[in-house]
């Protein structure tokens, strides 16, 4: 099949592209800086040309700079993408979303829910793949915090998944017929965000104070209750956070050499 990946240069999208290529499909990578097909979802530039002859479109685009920008890319962008797909005769639109997004009335989650609504009401047969937070995202968030020696973490039940596991699941969906329904993809274990932060600190050896971050209101209650997790997902990734992180740390130290951590490693203890 000829499959276009919007956001095919991102964390998830590039792995979906590699996976589908390895299965023998013709893959087109679409993004603003793609060396192949330059498209901008916020204007529609490049979309018509990029979708000629495509059977399936996977939307793995993203924008988290602000709620407004997220909506421009994901909600308005989905409208533009679907209209161009309809004109090009695309048979299946795969939208990547987030487990429980409709249960968390908060900025980015609300945008993702709205994006799902646009897809479900749109002109192209669809499947929504809802994944839990990627291990990569948690590592990035903790790494950013640790620069200031603090890890501000709310109480939230999470079930993080390796993006490689999620990419294989998205590729499976892209190869199958549209479901007009959802597929849920999670990681192998459910862990409180603060426990995850402690594990991150211990495995990376970074010194950072774990700062309990209050998350008031309905969104906070929902995340504490575990709406971002799924007891019976359609696909359960196999790589636990700790194994993924140990590999990532080993790879980083191989590629960056000594001193890459700027001497900020410590015992990781002495904190709540
Ligand atoms: N990260 C997570 O933990 C997680 C968990 C569950 C679900 N998801 C979902 O998975 C999807 C992918 O997330 P990700 O973390 O892999 O994203 P990412 O790494 O931030 O990649 C975003 C991609 O979107 C492209 N893009 C951004 N703005 C664009 C625009 N205006 N026009 C065209 N392309 C644009 C980027 O390329 P250019 O900059 O070159 O345009 C890039 O290829 C999202 O729908 C997200 O909600 C993510």
- Fraction of residues in H or I helices: 40-55%
Largest beta-sheet characterization: 8 strands, parallel
Counted beta strands = 12
The bound ligands are: NADP nicotinamide-adenine-dinucleotide phosphate
**Helix-strand pattern:** EHEEHEHEHEHEEHEEHEHEH
CATH architecture of one domain: 3-Layer(aba) Sandwich
What proportion strand?
A: 15-25%
Mean pLDDT: 94
* CATH fold group of one domain: Rossmann fold
Number of helices, where a helix is a run of at least 4 consecutive DSSP H or I residues: 9
| CATH superfamily heading of one domain | NAD(P)-binding Rossmann-like Domain
CATH class of one domain: Alpha Beta
Terminal residue distance: 52 Å
Q: Over the alpha carbons, how many angstroms does the gyration radius reach?
A: 19 Å
Look at the helices and sheets and give the structural class: alpha/beta
Features:
272 residues; alpha/beta; Rossmann fold; two-stranded parallel sheet; binds NADP nicotinamide-adenine-dinucleotide phosphate; protein-containing complex binding; ComplexI_NDUFA9_subunit; NAD-dependent dehydratase; NAD(P)-bd_dom; NAD(P)-bd_dom_sf
């Amino acid at each position: 099949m000829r499959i276009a990946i919007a956001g095919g240069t991102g964390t998830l999208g590039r792995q979906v592209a590699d996976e589908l290529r390895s299965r023998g499909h013709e893959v087109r990578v679409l993004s603003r800086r793609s060396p192949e097909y330059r498209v901008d979802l916020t204007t529609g530039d490049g979309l018509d040309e990029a979708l000629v002859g495509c059977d399936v479109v996977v939307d793995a685009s993203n924008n988290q700079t602000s709620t407004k920008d997220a909506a421009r890319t994901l909600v308005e962008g989905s409208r533009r993408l679907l209209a161009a797909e309809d004109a090009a005769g695309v048979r299946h639109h795969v939208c990547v979303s987030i487990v429980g997004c409709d249960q968390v009335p908060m900025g980015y989650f609300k945008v993702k829910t709205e994006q799902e609504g646009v897809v479900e009401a749109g002109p192209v047969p669809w499947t929504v793949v809802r994944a839990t937070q990627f291990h990569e995202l948690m590592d990035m968030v903790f790494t950013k915090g640790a620069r200031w020696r603090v890890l501000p973490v709310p109480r939230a039940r999470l079930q993080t998944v390796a993006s490689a596991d999620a990419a294989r699941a998205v590729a499976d969906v892209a190869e199958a017929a549209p479901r007009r329904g959802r597929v849920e993809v999670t990681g192998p274990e459910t862990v409180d965000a603060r426990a995850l932060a402690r594990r991150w600190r211990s495995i990376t050896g970074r010194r950072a104070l774990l700062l309990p971050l209050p998350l008031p209101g309905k969104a906070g209650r929902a995340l504490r209750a575990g709406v971002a997790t799924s007891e019976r997902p359609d696909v359960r990734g196999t790589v636990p956070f700790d194994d993924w992180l140990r590999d990532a740390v080993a790879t980083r130290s191989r590629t960056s050499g000594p001193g890459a951590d700027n001497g900020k490693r410590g015992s990781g203890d002495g904190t709540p």
